[in-house]
Amino acid sequence: MTDGEYRRQHRTSIDNPTAFWAEQAEALHWDRRWDSILTHDDPDGAPHWFAGGRLNTCHNAVDRHVEAGRGDTLALIHDSPVTDSVTRYTFRELRDATAALAGALRAHGVGTGDRVVIYMPMVAEAAIAMLACARIGAVHSVVFGGFAAPELAKRIDDARPKLILSASCGIEGSRVIAYKPLLDAALEGASHKPEACIVLQRPQCAAALTAGRDHDWREAVSAAEPAECVPVAATDPLYVLYTSGTTGRPKGVVRDNGGHAVALHYSMRAVYDMGPGEVFWAASDVGWVVGHSYIVYAPLLAGCTTVMYEGKPVGTPDAGAFWRVAADHGVKALFTAPTAFRAIKKEDPKGEHLARYDLSAFEALYLAGERCDPDTITWAGDLLKVPVIDHWWQTETGWPIAGICRGLDAGLDVRIGSAGLPVPGYDIAVVDDDGRPLERDAIGNIVVRQPLPPGTLPTLWRDEDGFREHYLARFPGYYLTGDAGRIDADGYVWVMSRIDDIINVAGHRLSTGAMEEVLAGHPDVAECAVIAVADATKGQLPVGMVVLKAGVERDHDTIVEELIARVRSEIGAVAAFKRAFVVARLPKTRSGKVLRKTMRAIANGESPAVPATIDDPAILDEIAGALGATETG
Ligand code: COA
Ligand code: AMP
After folding, report:
1. Which residue in 74, 173, 437, 571 has the most C-beta neighbors within 10 A?
2. 139 shares its domain with 273
3. Cβ(249) – ligand 2 distance below 6 Å
4. Residue range 499-553, pLDDT digits in tens
5. Is 329 within a domain?
């Protein structure tokens, strides 16, 4: 293994994080240098990076490249098979578009520290919206378009935005999904009322604008004075991104400006082996962390061209869509979720579409967002004949915790099934439930030794106590990732499962607890449980089990249909909640704890050891029967 540079950088980043990150920070433009690289006075809290420093993230991602003479280089390519269009922005054009929108925000009174909610489909304007907020020091909070109005309302109430940026519609495959009615419903339901909404009218669907509150995007932009970049404190928030926790209340992950820019810039070379002028494509959505970090910020910070794709891996128009985009734009590296490749494999198992395209510029495929099955990795590698790299990270960290740092050592071994080696900055350990470090290869809680590296969350939005409780209190001195797994003798990390009720559906992170809250709200439901079952394409799918209130005699199929519709309208289509059934009782221990783990195992065809404390063992057979599984051990 030729892993000298990787090992050297990883060791330095752990032994001497201050020197390591100071060196990385030099690559960016600082309006004021930091007073201190790393401040970690309170061991029970998060570290703070680059305190005293001032910079602007949009300047570093966009204007800096124009000033360096790269204004005519392509910054962003928006490729949209669903509207049959490709739009290209050079760094100069991106700067001008961003400055104009930032001016419109400012004209509406948005200033440093004000929040702006962005509820938009995968249009170039969504990226421009994020950068425009960053430009004037406003804090954006992007809400994924697949969430329904009540989820949007929760985020509006928590973030309390001064203004909302939205669009008339998104396009999902061949369907036009009107966004504005969802936004209107969310604003109706939210207690917080923003002062204004700026809405991008798309030709596929015109949105009705509410007089006095809603404004047309193009008019707002053309009337505005372009805004310059405003330097902010490195420790000021750049954005809040809500992610699923274990309950219906999403967690507002905060990202700072300085640490984020430094870490993301570093990751482009170290993890993805990308440099200025090269084309990077993260096939995700700006509503997820992958979209924030690797569609928008990281590639632009590194001076790469980023591809923003409004389409699907299959059906827009066929399973060759990814190869078409990669070939048309000379993509060097693609990053997506394994589920996208499973969808392609299912439609085109022999990869016949690939023969139509020239992928000579394509060098590596990166997968993350969910556990990747070895078959998919092998299939993709055999077909594309490039390294396929599984890597592991989460909304909270914002950039990879483990992976194969090809930019540091091209010869690093990939181990199929493992998420790779700790990325420089991350000191990963596996501990038992009492926080004791485990031997190599033993399975336990995967944790990161403090201090967390730059770019990781400094807190949760308006919830410092929750931040400490969720992530830092369980094992003092460590950040709890919420994932379980092991580290092998050579240091490779194997991520196996979550230790909580978070599930991963088509690479989308969802909370079974949130779905249970929705089911429990149905008037006929006495109690319920939602578990994830394995799915060949989406990785996991939620299944609900409900116990009806005594005396309810309505048809079970009707109730199930209502439950499915309820999750769709309360949480959103993205929950992919399409299966539920009525049971007589839920399996519980005698003390009343629902045996979710046992049910999960049954659903996945395993034969779990049934806890001796189970109240009524026969119920497991009923559940196994309903799930189509047979054994209960
Ligand atoms: N706006 C509105 N609705 C959306 C949406 C959006 N931005 N994104 C998804 N939805 C809807 C879908 O249309 C679908 O609705 P349906 O139940 O009416 O069919 C539902 O939410 C579930 O979406 P999804 O899980 O994405 O399923 P799909 O069948 O549409 O597509 C894949 C399956 C595998 C092709 C798709 O999930 C995919 O491309 N995944 C790539 C991975 C990815 O983007 N991961 C993000 C994190 S890296
Ligand atoms: P998200 O915050 O949506 O990015 O989801 C993060 C979670 O997805 C992690 O905590 C893991 O449970 C899972 N995940 C992400 N990447 C991987 C991976 N490469 N292997 C296994 N699980 C992963």
Report:
1. 571
2. yes
3. no
4. 988 999 999 999 999 999 999 999 999 999 999 998 999 999 999 999 999 999 9
5. no
Indicate if 96 and 236 belong to the same structural domain. yes
Same domain assignment for residues 598 and 452: no
When computed from its CA atoms, the radius of gyration of the chain, rounded to whole angstroms, is 24
Q: Are residues 154 and 105 in the same domain?
A: yes
The rounded distance, in Å, linking the Cα atoms of 404 and 424 is: 11
Pick the closest to residue 170 from 126, 138, 133, 128 (CA basis): 126
Question: Which of 401, 416, 483, when mutated, tests ligand 2's pocket best, judged by the most ligand atoms within 8 Å of its CB?
Answer: 483
Q: What is the pLDDT of residues 589-633, one digit of tens each?
A: 888 888 888 888 888 777 777 777 777 778 888 888 877 743 333
Tally of domains in the chain: 2
- Bridge-based pairing of strands 169-172 and 175-178 is antiparallel
Give the ligand whose atoms come closest to the C-alpha of residue 504: 2
Return the ligand 1 atom nearest residue 368 CA. Answer: 48
Residue 495 CA to ligand 2 centre (angstroms): 8
CA separation for the pair 328, 633 (Å, rounded): 53
Give the Cα separation of 338 and 409 in Å (integer): 24
Distance between CA atoms of 190 and 211, rounded to whole angstroms?
19
Shared domain for 471 and 528, answered yes or no, is no
Asked whether the beta carbons of 89 and 76 are under 8 A apart, the reply is yes
Which residue has the least CA distance to atom 13 on ligand 1?
172
**Structural domain that includes position 525:** 506-627
Q: Is the dihedral of CA 36, 37, 40, 45 positive or negative?
A: positive
* pTM of the predicted model as reported, rounded to 2 decimal places: 0.95
Domain match, 224 and 122 both: yes
Looking from the CA of residue 391, the nearest atom of ligand 2 is: 19
Could you tell me if residue 347 is inside a domain? no
> Ligand 1 centroid to 574 CA: how many Å?
6
User: How many angstroms is it from 448 CA to the middle of ligand 2?
Assistant: 15
